[in-house]
Amino acid sequence: MSGTNNKKNETANTNLTSQAAVKPQESVSLFKDAMYRLATNKAAMISLSVLVLVVIFALIGPTSLFTSYNYYSNDLMNANAAPSAEHWFGTDDLGRDVWVRTWVGARVSLTVGLAAALIDLVIGVIYGAIMGYYGGRVDGIMNKFSEILYSLPYMLVVILLLVVLEPSLTTIIIALTITGWISMSWIVRGEIMQLKNRDFILAARSMGASTGRQLFRHLLPNAIGPIIVTLTLSIPNAIFAEAFLSFLGLGVSAPRSSLGSMINDALTGWTLYPWRMWFPAGLMVLTMLAFNLLGDGLRDALDPKLRK
Amino acid sequence: MEFHIYPDFFVCAPIFLIILEISDKWIGLYFCLILQSICIQNIVCGGVQGLVKYVLKKLLFMLLSLFILASLTFFLMKAIPGDPFTAEKKLSPEIRALLEVKYGLDKPMYEQYLKYMGGILKGDFGVSMRYLNQDVTDMITQTFTASLKLGIFAILISIVVGVLLGLLAAVYHRKLIDDVTMVVAVIGIAVPSFLLASLLQYVFAFKLGWFNVMGFDGPLDYVLPVAALSASPIAFIARLTRSSMLEVLHADYIKTAKAKGLKWPAIMFKHVVRNGILPVVTYVGPMTANIITGSVVIEQIFNIGGIGKVFVESITNRDYTMIMGITIFYGILLMLARFLTDIAYVLIDPRIKLESRKGA
Amino acid sequence: MKRKSLLVLLTLILAFGTVLAACGSKNEGTGNTDTGSASEGNGLAKDQILKINLSAEPPTLDPAQAKDSQTNTVLKFLYEGLVRIDADGKEAPGVAKDWTISEDGLKYVFNLNPDAKWSNGDAITAEDFVRSWERALKPETASPYAYQLYYIKGAEGYNLSKDETYKGTKITDFSQVGVKATDEHTLEVTLENPTPYFLGLTAFYTYYPVHASADTNDKFFTDYKNMIVNGPFVMDQYAKGQKIVVKKNDGYHAAADIKLAQIDMSLTNSSASELQAYKSGQLDYTGAPNGEIPSDQIPSVKAELPDEFKATGIASTYYYQFNVNEAPFNNVKIRKAFAMAIQRQLIVDKVTQGGQIPAFGFVPPGIRGENGEFRDEHKDDYFTENVDEAKKLLAEGMKEEGYTTLPAVTLIYNTSDGHAKIALAVADMWKQNLGVDVKTENQEWGVFLENRQNQNFQVARAGWSADYNDPYNFLEMWTTGNTNNDSKFSNEQYDKDVKETVKSADPAARMAAFADAEKILIQDEMGVMPIYYYTNVSLTKPYLKGVQLDFSGAIDFTRAYLEEK
To answer: What is the pTM of this model?
Structure first.
């Protein structure tokens, strides 16, 4: 037995050394490696397909492919009707078709949520990385600035924004991103502060790596875990923040609505007309679940520490 | 030992007295105890001088920030349309003029600003413009106490349950427990708090009758609001913990510890938790500030006389003095929370230096 | 290392321990009072504790500063005026046991009840009223409803004595104002004009007496434990933002009529919570005027609890204002077209669902006319809903203004489920019936009011409720330049008609003038677009009796009582 094994090992060793002598082994890029690992993550792949489906339906659901109703025409005589062949998701309190409104609402929610979350990601990561890396006075000042911004009465800022700018989806995204990036920046700051004194960074520095290279090649990828988790939280946060704004009257103007405001409207009557709430809420939970599982998959895929 | 107590006493005692003087005694005591722990820590480790300089510097910086915050808020407030007297049944111009004189709103902007800031420096936040004759400071104290009571429990539960769930998920990575806890966690994030609160109220209070529909009198009244408040933080903390612990669990030094023959619980505490807890701490700081400043929706749904609802109302009512008072109060809370978070960083990972030069 | 963590742990334990201790110590004594009242059979419940909800905390408990319905409800518990309104809506003795009115309607003499006392035992004297009304009218007090006292001779001049723009006679000495205490228990009031509704007006909160110590004690209205009042109840507990409790005032002169021992008021503005609390027995009453039953729930609540559900008409009107100086509503025909092109009954049946009455006039039912109600004596048939006619008028109006397409129209409303639904329904009707695309814009409360009150709108949602029982309350506001005339409607004949009613003592002539004015406002000019007359939608537990709702929708629980369940 052992004899055969020894032979195998010997051959393997010979192969390796001979190969090494011929050409250096190609390193797999981070991206390719990550995509491969993601593809093998079942939960993440399912979530991705769910999200793609949701986006597709958000785009085509309200169109004439599925229904002849629109999201704003009232039909008071048929208000609060239960789901039927006519209205797959039932109607709301003004007789509007819930199927159409849910998908139109999904468009608004997803647009707002994704746009706000991504903008927050970019600003937050850059800001937090600079704070964490440089430390000292730079950190102190930047920190104070973000603390002050965070402490400003958010409602006042939003009211002012809506008075100064026309109420529109863009204005709402701006309103959401004004303070949304701050939590991300704090998380990144903490991570960078913890990582920058580690050996691998000292090594990179001593090899002459520039600040940018240190940050983007070494520090940030190692901080990717909490960043992604925060990202997957900031999407629902943005969506709920928009719902909260609607609750206060500062959100998207009726008859347009988002999933959040639809749920809000349905709250007083959901025990009697459950479809008005469960469809948008269900879609929202499903989408959030998908984002989070996908986020987990991304984190598992991108984190260099988990490379086997 | 005795030698250490004296400097501690002289430095911290006056601060304690001031705090107890200006605040509700329970809150004051709470803050005093936190400061005491910091005092002890730093004296044991760094010497009184270092502590005094550090704390004073931080305090000064904080006061400056608060000043900027207050000024920005003042002008922001004045910039939006409406004032405390705007009403559906309009006041006659004559009476409105009288009211403006009474509240000093007829004076030019800068004069109002200076007068207000002057009052703040003396600790006088004025009287509410909506709830006539009621002291802003009194109102804040009363309502904040309610939010604090609720918030403390929510924070405790969020941290304990969140970290536990996260640890479980990390240790049993890719097994059933991991997926289950993560799905439970996602429910907390995916369901908006106003929906969760309404559902909890409907099922447990109304249908099952286990709790009062609303009110804040007995201990049972805490259950539903705390559950609704902590759902999202639990979820986030669980996920942060899991993510962070996963990295730590796969690190080499853990394998070393295992190879050395260290038992599991010891490894847990000494290495895993310590190294992985930082992002959670980063999040918990501001989260604490957010939770104890109350949730408008939860306070409305369960009829808790908390400060969140008062704040939102004060903006709608354009109650200028209240808006300023609460904003400054929130600002103090947040800055304190972040300050404590930074202290926690140092305690957890001594390699982190807060006041270091550029890392080059 | 170890010491550090130990210390931290200890600190945390101590800290949390103290907080927990703080939590455990309070106890806001929930209703366990021995009342000793109401044991005269009649199946009265042993615990006469009424539980209601106020959807907002009263901003103040000072009668001179009061101006909203939550404050009104609470002040009715704590105070009593010269007169009170009884269950039939008639003026009944309050602090005054009887009164005489002169022939010309200008002089009132009130004889005070010598048994009427303050809650600290002090007697209530006529001087108390003189001083309290002076306090309400003093310029420094800046009372928002001071104008309710302007019916008294010289009151306006006294109130506006510091105002440069005031053109009338300024009075700085209150003794020249028409109210005098001729002796300890006699109060003489002289009016500017014969005002038929003055007697009922003395039950309004601005007319309440306030104890003399309020003048010297800054904390009078916030020192809840020691508040000196003269009404059937006294303040017992006040947990800010959460609960208010009042207890029976045994020193009240008509204490025998008061059966309730205590009233607990919670302060949530969540209508869903309120309804659930009612259904589970935590509240005895829910709905208007201090709360709201969500419109989604109304049909089911009506079906489930038909004996508890009530929708009573009250004197308030829901309407849309046109900005008559802004295109396209500067054209009468276009305004009429819009007003005629909606189905009010459909809105009332399907959107608001509270049994409201479609409105075609501005003065609501419940307002007194000559002998009965104004709305009965003068029917509001100023226009009808007619889509064809509306389309015609719209076309004509557009031609007159030279539009080929109608300028963009925006309807603004303030944040509220109810307003949003109505606005969406109306906008949709305009689209379907007139083919006009009206944009609906939801604005934050303060922003909305500023816009509307500064004519920064085209069409805006509005509502008006009665402060006193006379058509003047509803029609005065549309006179040229009136403070509340946001639409800037202006018509000379209208102004003349309304002004005429002030000096006249002849009820028939007054009502005729009002009717003519209303005709001009609606039929001729359509300055405003009425939508419906309000109803007060509420649920009352079957064991709760004696609740009084007046014509304006204000509620009086003081004479209520709870029967055995």
So the answer is: 0.85
